[in-house]
């Protein structure tokens, strides 16, 4: 039965659209576009980059505030942070050797929470990390001399890698001791 339907449909020829349909559709579209007022393009008063920077700074400030408030809340709930027995011993040793005033000073200094790093210290650490990454991803002259004498087919494989791939390779090599041995 499906063959009969296919044969019947094969003899039917498609009819095209009426001759004036295209002109009517284009005319109706043009009329609608002429009636709809176009909004003028306005320039943003507040650039997106500035809004992003402001949101980032606001988020960082809110994070520090939340951290400080959380520490205060935990301090009220559980009391002060416990003092390490090693700090107590060291303060007692200092008090025996240098006197009770020096022992109190050592105890206060050793039991105080560590100060957060300054902005200059954070910048110095970031520069140092960047320098180490650049140093680890650059080809060394000594390594080139050593591999030039080898007859391994893999001699030039690392030169073909992009910088990001080389950084990942270095990270894998640095953290290789964390992998479980199989």
Question: What key phrases describe this protein's structure?
Answer:
single chain, 182 residues, mainly alpha, 8 helices, 0% strand, elongated, disordered C terminus
Write a brief caption for the model.
The chain is an all-alpha fold. Among the domains are: 69-114, no CATH class; 115-139 and 160-175, no CATH class. The protein has helices at residues 2-11, 21-35, 48-78, 85-98, 100-111, 119-137, 141-149, 163-174.
What's the helix and strand layout?
Blueprint lengths: L1 H10 L9 H15 L12 H31 L6 H14 L1 H12 L7 H19 L3 H9 L13 H12 L8
Describe what this molecule looks like in 3D.
By secondary structure, this protein is mainly α. Among the domains are: 69-114, no CATH class; 115-139 and 160-175, no CATH class. It is built from eight helices and no strands.
């Amino acid at each position: 039965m499906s063959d009969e339907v296919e044969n019947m449909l094969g003899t039917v020829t498609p009819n095209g659209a009426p001759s004036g349909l295209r002109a009517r559709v284009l005319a109706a579209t043009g009329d609608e576009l002429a009636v709809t007022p176009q909004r003028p393009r306005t320039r943003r008063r507040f650039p997106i980059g500035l809004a992003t920077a402001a949101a980032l700074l606001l988020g960082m400030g809110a994070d520090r505030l939340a951290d400080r408030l959380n520490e205060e809340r935990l301090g009220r709930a559980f009391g002060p942070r416990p003092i390490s027995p090693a700090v107590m011993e060291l303060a007692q040793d200092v008090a025996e050797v240098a006197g009770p005033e020096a022992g109190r000073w050592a105890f206060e200094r050793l039991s105080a929470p560590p100060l957060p790093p300054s902005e200059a210290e954070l910048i110095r650490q970031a520069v140092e990390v960047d320098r180490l990454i650049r140093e680890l991803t650059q080809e060394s002259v000594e390594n080139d001399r050593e591999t030039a004498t080898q007859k391994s087919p893999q001699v030039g494989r690392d030169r073909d890698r992009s910088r990001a791939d080389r950084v990942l390779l270095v990270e894998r090599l640095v953290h290789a001791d964390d992998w479980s041995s199989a």
